[in-house]
Amino acid sequence: MARQKPLKLYRNIGIIAHIDAGKTTTTERVLYYTGKKHQIVDVHDTKDGKGSTTTDYLEQERKRGITIQSAAVSTEWKGHQINVIDTPGHVDFTIEVNRSLRVLDGAVVVFDGVAGVEPQTETNWRLADQYNVPRMCYVNKMDRIGANFKHCVDGIRNRLGANAVLCQIPLGSHDEFIGMADLIAGVGYIWNSDDKDSTWETIPLDQIADHPKVKAFQAAGDREWVANLASLREQSIETAVEMDDDAMDAYLSNGDIPSLEKLKECIRKGCVAGKLVPVFCGSSYRNKGVQQLLDGVIDYMPYPGENGGISMVDEDGHIIGEQEVSDDAPVRALAFKVINDQFGTLTFTRIYSGVIKKGDTLQNVTRGKKERVGRIVEVQANATKEIDEVRAGDICAFVSMKETETGDSLTDPAHPVLLERMRFPDPVISVSVEPKSRNDIDKMSTALYKMVKADPSLKLEVDKETGQTVLKGMGELHLEITIDRMRTELGVDANMGKPKVSFREAFGQTVEHTYTHKKQSGGSGQFAEVKMVFEPGEPGSGVVFSDEIVGGRVPREYIPAVQHAIEVESRQGQVAGYEVLDFKARLVDGKYHDVDSSALAFEIAGRQCFREAQRMSKPKLLEPIMSLEVVTEADYLGDIIGDINRRRGSVSDQGQKGPQAFVQGFVPLAEMFGYINFLRSATSGRGTFTMIFDHYEEVPANLVDKLMEKEAK
């Protein structure tokens, strides 16, 4: 079957933002205005559990009114196929944004018009930078009290470092928000009402100031935007033409303003190349601006392959080439998400090249296994529609793939190649998990395995000393929801223990140590001697092994065994058994025996040398330090700051976000369990907080024993 729609008419986009900026509400409006659904469900109407928005269909999402897992929907707008992924905004579920951005061609970043740039916005923005994803900004909630478009744009430019081009500015704010001025098209859109089917007037830019609704604006800031429309349009045109040499020459030489098509072409060129970011505005809840945002997606977001294909890598992760997006190339696809439920497994996949049909066999290059494609489905959140084939640029799901996990490369068996993998954060918090009854042990193990397979930011371990099953994740909410989803989706009840911190260890100082392994027990014995220097490294430098043997003092074939020993042994330090971070291990000398030396003997010597050297180095215990932001009313700031100091934290910044005050700082994770209870009590339920892992820091010596005692309980 031939391609139904040219690749240029496809848009694969994600909607990303901080929690509560309006991503899901915007997605609901997108589906309504594109004719995909006939009624709108608002997030605040789902907490009774009776209804759900299209993309927040999990019971846990409806109850909490937040997005927990990314959900994919497909729709059409003006002849273009738009595949949308609505992602979570809560920091505990950053993994969902990470893997979505990995396979998307563009992203719409949604901002709360009052709060502006928030911590999770910055995290998501950095992820988009990492994956080279073009972005456009949508300043939402312009109808809220305290909405401040200038504050938001300043944050985009200064905190995110974006070259923002204002495509729209708001007309009014709060209850006077009536529409927006389109600086590129040179017109204003003024809505007749807040109704979802309301029409709007389109009037020339120079007539906006005389409109009766605009003349009635009370706020000085709103009147100032309107007074400056001409100069703002000029600034936007200047930013746009910088992307095209001919347009720039004509504009600077003769003052020729390019046609609307040429202006859009310039902005698109800059947006796709990541050189500028178009800014739109509106109020999704009040049904204003979503249609224009959809026009912007078509005008400025890239089609699959427009900003390059996907990198191909060798087994060590080094880039060896790029696969362009084309139907005619061998099949290359990336599995970016796995969902397990009582009906089976759905493997969400982005097709980068080639054509995949039902019944085809693919090579899972990551795991060295073959997978047969049974059913292929197009996903509409929690509903699926069966399709016969998928082509380059498509996002689909394969049903019941047995071996494939998140990040795996699926290719034509005749042309196997690894695609660049995603990078996932390490978990910072752990809990013990046990079944409600002894009969459920096997069921719980199977359910936990499925949850971990679906979510790479979860890790599962068995404590060697206690035999307990330990689940590690990104935060208290992350782990709590994982256990709850096991109950609702897989029918397995489990009890969750008290959360524990994932500490780390480090060398306290440089140590030179020699260890000799000698064993004689009849016949050939074991002999190996290694002399090593262990040096503390810079934060984030990892474990570095350096072979500095000269003159054959240790034969070449034994050195990998020493390196392997150091890498394995560093997973369990000598202070309290935590992983050892950031050090350099230099193998400088050694001895061997012609008969008694072996790789095993040198591995044992390497392990013992590491253990003794770490103990001698006055090792340090490190704890995760979290970046914290609390937003509340100014009256409560004193209590919040005092509490941060009591928790061994430090305040880095404080100020105003619209009518709300905020305080930012750094606090040890060990002191933050149950923080939400304190915050609710201290602020009469009005405060909110965001917490994200920032770095590891040494635990003060006088607190090591106390913290270890607390963790052991």
List the keywords.
Elongation factor G; 713 residues; globular; protein biosynthesis; translation elongation factor activity; nucleotide-binding; 8-stranded antiparallel sheet; GTP-binding; 7-stranded mixed sheet; alpha+beta; 38 strands; 18 helices; 27% helix
Strand content: 25-35%
**Strand order of the biggest β-sheet:** 18-17-23-14-15-22-19-20
Structural class: alpha+beta
Q: Give start-end ranges of low-pLDDT stretches.
A: 44-69
The number of helical segments is 18
User: What overall geometry do the principal axes of the alpha carbons give?
Assistant: globular
Distance between the termini: 63 Å
- Please describe the biggest sheet, giving its number of strands, its sense, and whether it closes into a barrel: 8 strands, antiparallel
Summarize model confidence as the mean pLDDT: 86
Write down the Rg.
29 Å
Percent of residues in helical segments? Answer: 25-40%
Multimeric status of the protein: single chain
Q: What's the total number of strands?
A: 38
Domain Tr-type G: 8-306
Subcellular location: Cytoplasm
Binding site for GTP: 17-24, 86-90, 140-143
Protein name: Elongation factor G
Question: What does the model show?
Answer:
This protein has 713 residues and is an alpha+beta fold. Helices cover 27% and strands 31% of the residues. It is built from 18 helices and 38 strands. Strands 18-17-23-14-15-22-19-20 form an 8-stranded antiparallel sheet. A 7-stranded mixed sheet has the order 2-3-1-4-5-11-6, with helices on both faces. Helix 8 packs across helix 10 (260-272). It is globular and about 100 Å long. It starts with 9 loop residues before the first strand and ends with a helix. Residues 44-69 have low confidence and may be disordered.
